[in-house]
C-alpha cells in the first residue's frame, strides 16, 4: 500500500545439509512369555503360533516396567551410543499407542526424566508405523533447521491392551521400547520417506471401543485391540513390498545395494512375502526379532535393529530398508544408514 513500509522478508529457517542416525538403543522387558503360557487363554497350540506367525516367545512388561520407564531406558542407551548429551536434544518424539493419558504427551515426561526440559516434546499416533513417521519428521527437522538433534522413541505396552482370550491377537502383541538419535551428517543418512494411509480400512485394526463408550458402558472394560488378521495380512504382504521398492527408488539405490531389511515385526510370513516380492538377494540380512520379542508395534523396528546389531547381522555404515505398517492403515518406509 502506498505510504506504508514494506514488510521485510522473513529469514528462512536453515538446517544441516543432511541428516543421519547417530545412535540406537533398546529396552526389552524382563518377563519372557512362551507360547505355552499364551495358549492357556486361547484355543491354540505352540506349533500353530510358530508356523503361522514365527513367534516362539514374547516380552511382557512387569508392573515396574512402565511405558515411561522403558522409553527413558531405551533413550538413555541411544544417547550413549550416539555420544550426544541429553541437553543437546532439541526435540523428543515418542511414537506410541500405549500412553493412556489423553494429554499431556508422554514425550514431555521422558524429556524431563532425561534432563532435557527445554526440548520440544510430543507424541505421534501412527500405530505400528509410528517409529518410521518419527524418523521421517526428525530428518526433516534437522535439515529444515527446527532442531539439530532429535530423539525418536518407539514404545509400547500392548500386553495391557490385548485380550488374553482373543484367538486372533493374544499371541501376537508384546511390549518394549527402542530409540534413535537423529542429527546432522556429512552425507545423506536417511532417505526420502514414502508414507501414506488408507482410512477406508480403519476398522481392520483398532481399539474395540473409544473411551466414551467404555465410560458409559454398564460394565466398563479395557478397550482391547481387535484385528481382522487375514485382511491385514493380505494388505501388508502385497502393498508394503511396493512401498519398499518405492523407498529404494526414491533413495536412488537398488536391492543389490541393501545390507539389511528391517520391516515392522508383524508376522514372519509377511516378512517372507515382502522379501520375495521385492526379490531381495540372499546377501540381505532380514530382521526376525519377532521370534523372541513378539509384535511391539511402534517399538518393533528399533528393537529389531538392536538385535541385528547385537548378533552381528548389521554393522555401522550398513544400508537398511525400514518398512512400518499397521492400524490406520498407516505406513511409512525409508532407507537409512545404520549408526
Ligand atoms: N490358533 C489356532 N488356530 C487359529 C488361531 C489361533 N490363534 N487363529 C485362527 N486360527 C484358525 C482359524 O480358525 C482358521 O481355521 P479354519 O481354517 O479351520 O477355519 C485358520 O486358523 C486360519 O485362520 P486365519 O484367520 O485365516 O489365520 P491366518 O493364517 O491369517 O493367521 C494371523 C492369523 C493373525 C497370524 C495372521 O492373519 C496375521 O499375522 N495377520 C497380520 C497380523 C498383523 O500383522 N497385525 C499387526 C499389524 S500391525
Binned, the helix content reads: 25-40%
Structural class by SSE content: alpha/beta
Supply Rg: 20 Å
| Beta-strand residue percentage | 15-25%
N- and C-termini, Cα separation: 54 Å
Number of strands: 14
Oligomer: single chain
What is the ordering of alpha helices and beta strands?
A: EEHHEHEHEHEEEEHEHEHEHHEE
Put simply, the count of helices is 10
Largest sheet, if any?
Answer: 5 strands, mixed
Arrangement of strands in the largest sheet: 1-7-6-4-5
Shape: globular
Q: Report the mean per-residue pLDDT as an integer.
A: 96
What compounds sit in this structure? coenzyme A
Spans of at least 5 consecutive residues with low confidence: none
Characterize the structure shown.
- β4, α4 and β5 form a beta-alpha-beta unit.
- The strands form four sheets. A five-stranded mixed sheet has the order 1-7-6-4-5, sandwiched between helices. A five-stranded mixed sheet has the order 8-14-13-11-12, with helices on both faces.
- It has helices spanning 35-38, 46-53, 67-82, 106-114, 130-144, 211-216, 229-251, 268-277, 290-293, 300-310, and strands at residues 18-27, 31-34, 57-60, 91-95, 120-124, 150-157, 175-185, 194-197, 205-207, 225-227, 260-263, 285-286, 319-326, 330-337.
- Helix content is 31%, strand content 23%.
- The relative contact order is 0.19.
- The N and C termini lie far apart (54 Å).
- α7 (229-251) packs across α8.
- With 339 residues, the chain is α/β, with parallel strands linked by helices.
- Bound molecules: coenzyme A.
- The site of coenzyme A (COA) has 21 residues, from α2 and α7.
Amino acid at each position: 500500500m502506498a505510504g506504508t513500509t514494506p514488510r521485510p522478508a522473513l529469514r528462512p529457517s536453515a538446517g544441516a545439509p543432511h541428516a543421519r542416525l547417530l545412535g540406537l538403543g533398546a529396552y526389552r522387558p524382563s518377563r519372557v512369555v512362551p507360547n505355552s503360557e499364551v495358549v492357556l487363554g486361547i484355543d491354540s497350540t505352540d506349533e500353530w503360533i510358530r508356523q503361522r506367525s514365527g513367534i516362539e516367545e514374547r516380552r511382557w512388561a512387569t508392573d515396574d516396567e512402565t511405558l515411561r520407564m522403558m522409553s527413558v531406558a531405551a533413550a538413555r542407551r541411544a544417547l550413549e551410543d550416539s555420544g550426544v548429551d541429553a541437553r543437546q536434544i532439541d526435540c523428543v518424539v515418542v511414537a506410541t499407542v500405549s500412553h493412556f493419558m489423553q494429554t499431556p504427551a508422554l514425550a514431555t515426561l521422558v524429556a524431563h526424566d532425561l534432563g532435557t526440559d527445554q526440548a520440544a516434546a510430543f507424541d505421534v499416533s501412527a500405530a505400528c508405523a509410528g517409529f518410521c513417521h518419527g524418523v521421517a519428521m526428525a530428518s526433516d527437522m534437522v535439515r529444515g533447521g527446527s532442531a539439530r538433534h532429535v530423539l525418536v522413541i518407539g514404545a509400547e505396552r500392548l500386553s495391557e491392551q490385548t485380550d488374553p482370550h482373543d484367538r486372533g491377537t493374544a499371541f501376537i502383541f508384546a511390549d518394549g521400547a527402542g530409540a534413535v538419535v537423529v542429527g546432522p551428517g556429512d552425507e545423506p543418512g536417511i532417505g526420502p520417506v514414502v508414507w501414506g494411509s488408507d482410512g477406508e480400512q480403519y476398522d481392520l485394526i483398532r481399539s474395540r471401543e473409544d473411551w466414551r463408550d467404555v465410560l458409559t458402558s454398564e460394565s466398563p472394560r479395557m478397550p482391547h485391540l481387535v484385528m481382522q488378521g487375514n485382511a491385514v495380512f493380505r494388505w501388508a504382504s502385497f502393498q508394503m513390498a511396493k512401498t519398499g521398492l518405492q523407498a529404494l527408488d526414491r533413495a536412488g539405490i537398488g536391492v543389490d545395494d541393501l545390507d539389511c531389511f528391517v520391516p515392522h515385526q508383524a508376522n514372519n510370513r509377511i516378512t517372507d512375502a515382502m522379501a520375495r516380492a521385492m526379490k531381495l538377494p540372499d546377501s540381505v540380512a532380514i530382521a526376525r526379532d519377532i521370534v523372541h520379542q513378539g509384535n511391539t508395534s511402534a517399538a518393533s523396528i528399533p528393537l529389531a535393529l538392536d538385535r541385528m546389531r547385537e548378533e552381528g547381522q548389521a554393522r555401522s555404515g550398513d544400508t537398511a530398508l525400514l518398512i512400518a505398517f499397521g492400524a490406520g492403515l498407516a505406513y511409512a518406509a525409508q532407507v537409512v544408514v545404520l549408526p
